[in-house]
Write a structure and sequence with these properties.
It contains ten helices and 13 strands. It is an alpha/beta fold and 343 residues long. The N and C termini lie far apart (52 Å). Bound molecules: nicotinamide-adenine-dinucleotide and uridine-5'-diphosphate (UDP) (2 copies). The site of one uridine-5'-diphosphate (UDP) has 14 residues, from helix 6 and strand 8. This is UDP-glucuronate decarboxylase. Its cofactor is NAD(+). It is found in: Golgi apparatus, Golgi stack membrane.
Amino acid sequence: VERRVVEEKGLESAVVKSKPMPLPRSRKRILVTGGAGFVGSHLVDRLLERGDSVVVVDSFFTGRRENVAHHFGDPRFELIRHDVVEPLMLEVDQIYHLACPASPVFYKYNPVKTIKTSVMGTLNMLGLAKRVKARFLVTSTSEVYGDPEQHPQTEEYWGHVNPIGERSCYDEGKRTAEALTMDYHRGSGVDVRIARIFNTYGPRMLIDDGRVVSNFVAQALRKEPMTVYGDGKQTRSFQYVSDLVAGLMALMDGEHIGPFNLGNPGEFTMLELAEVVREVIDPAAQIAYRENTADDPHQRKPDISKAKALLKWEPKVPLREGLPLMVEDFKARLKTPKQLGAS
Ligand code: NAD
Ligand code: UDP
Ligand code: UDP
């Protein structure tokens, strides 16, 4: 093996050394569903950068071709317009299954479609993983904990979800996706990974996506008041997208199934978030209070001890460092009139 590696690499000088050379990591063919979306497109960047081939499957419901357009023409990149609710035949080594709207505004827009995406979409991708013996990673969510009665949330917590509420299309859809994933693992031996993602922000979020960080940033840049829902005392923990992508890749390439919380434990009330946005964009930015939405979780903060211990992963980018990076991207896109609205 040592000789072959040395010959392949053409490093004659290494032959004299007695230490075996590490085998080169084999290049993989990787499917990323939802790869034209916010998180998916950043993941695709990193996978291509390290030398793998990537197939993106996306329906463009909340994703945009622009997010991956910089890879057009790369022979290791392929983009397929496809709805994961329909079966799909491909040959791949790994599947990162992200396809699903993530913003409450979009997942509530057609709740039945959201459930179909989580349930039938995940079933199809698990069927595909089973057939081609690919490793399968599902992006679940902190929403499986609902309005949590345990704080911070550990992976052992079973959650406090309203099964018939307006958010349940997303929450229960993802809980079913997790259940299906474990059933394919136990029943069919599919090699699986489960990530529970906490609120993530960064460049390429849709400007009118409806999530709180993108709303506040767009509003402050447009000199509109930041809309705080309810009394603004509810909390969230905000993770910068590069940290999430590193966590997803560590999970996929590691030996542990999970579930793993992937999030930044830094916890902020919505009023504190508005204060940070003021610091970064405009100290004069105003706040306008709006009625809160139904079943809004009061507090959310990940316990990431498990990911730290087993994946050797933890987030590196605090909110005050990540937010300016997102603001630059939003500023540039707000200058382009056609991208003012959600596309
Ligand atoms: P996003 O809306 O930007 O990306 C989702 C992508 O999936 C989009 O490109 C969309 O077009 C695509 N999609 C939706 N339905 C589809 C379907 N039926 N078939 C094919 N493609 C479809 O959202 P995101 O923030 O990038 O989230 C990615 C994943 O991470 C989602 O599964 C989401 O539930 C999960 N997640 C995200 C967060 C977060 O804060 N960003 C938090 C928890 C979980
Ligand atoms: N499936 C798919 N691509 C594949 C293999 C399966 O989309 O390469 C779909 C298939 O159409 C089915 C689902 O995945 O709806 C579950 O497949 P599985 O083989 O587990 O179950 P079955 O087809 O026996 O119901
Ligand atoms: N929120 C807000 N103003 C907005 C959008 C959201 O105050 O313009 C609040 C919302 O009520 C929730 C928190 O921000 O408490 C996070 O909402 P988001 O939709 O970003 O994500 P969620 O964690 O609820 O899925």
